[in-house]
Amino acid sequence: MLIGRLGQVIVESMSKNKNLNISRGPEGWTVRIVREGEQHSKYFRFSDGGIRKSLAKAQKWRDAKIKELGERQWRKGPRKKPTNNTSGITGVSRNFYGRWVATWQEDGVQRFLTFKTKKEAVAHRKAMIEGMG
């Protein structure tokens, strides 16, 4: 666990970080878990057994709550077209520089490619979606 200049916990990565969903405050640890838009949180004071014991209690509560609620579910499949979509095609939009951008998911990683014309971006997006299915 790394601590920043202002005392906040800096998250390293999910595989290394055993304090995922736990943040340090001035007087205790806060555990926050969000599932289906509902937030579940609990505060563990340092005065309740010290910093290490309160962190252990926070980790135990977090693990039990995640077991109860289940792991986080990531959205898969086609997404609803945003209202600010100017192309009319999900996954095709214009960037800050006026170029057309086609986006898609590949092996769980967000990918994108820019094009001069909307027609090229739409064709590439369709090809990538058909290639996955």
Structure commentary:
A hairpin with a 5-residue loop joins strand 1 (2-3) and strand 2 (9-10). The chain has 133 residues and is α+β, with helices and mostly antiparallel strands. It folds into two domains: 2-69; 74-133, Single alpha-helices involved in coiled-coils or other helix-helix interfaces (Up-down Bundle), CATH 1.20.5. The strands form three sheets. The protein has a three-stranded antiparallel sheet with strand order 3-4-5, covered by helices on one side. A three-stranded antiparallel sheet has the order 6-7-8, with helices on one face. The protein has a two-stranded antiparallel sheet with strand order 1-2. Helices cover 26% and strands 30% of the residues. This is AP2/ERF domain-containing protein. It comes from Rhodopirellula baltica WH47. Residues 69-90 are annotated as: Disordered.
Q: Which features would summarize this protein structure in a list?
A:
single chain; 133 residues; alpha+beta; Single alpha-helices involved in coiled-coils or other helix-helix interfaces; 2 domains; three-stranded antiparallel β-sheet; 2 helices; 26% helix; elongated; AP2/ERF domain-containing protein
What fraction, in percent, of the residue positions are helical?
Answer: 25-40%
Strand content: 25-35%
The assigned structural class equals alpha+beta
Overall number of domains: 2
Q: Give the overall shape, derived from the CA principal axes.
A: elongated
Strand element count: 8
Strand order of the largest sheet: 3-4-5
Q: Sheet with the most strands?
A: 3 strands, antiparallel
Query: Rounded to an integer, what's the Rg over CA atoms?
Result: 21 Å
| Low-confidence residue ranges | 8-16
